[in-house]
Amino acid sequence: MPTPSPRSRAARERAAKRWYVYLVLCRGNAIYTGIALDVAARYAQHLAGTGARYTRANPPRRLLARFACPNQSAAGRLEAAIKRLSAADKRILVGTTGAGARKLLLD
Fold this sequence. Notes:
Blueprint lengths: L5 H11 L2 E8 L4 E6 L2 H10 L4 H5 L2 E10 L2 H12 L3 H7 L4 H9 L1
Helix pairs in contact: 4-6
């Protein structure tokens, strides 16, 4: 059996890592939604002003929730579904699990 190329091996390793969808409460009580492999590091970027353009203009106040997803694709789909929700509906998600959020929004 041929040895997998470094590129395909890296792609498989990246796909095997757990991705997260996270919600951040920002200035003005707006809720920012994003995805990351390391939520703590990404949140630190938002706090430092080096994250997303939205959080540079609306500084984060606190991390509200994070939802574990099995892969990047699932995280992207969940993020898109959450972004379509109203702020009130996003607040309802706080306290649910990743599986619960996926079941509510994607099934």
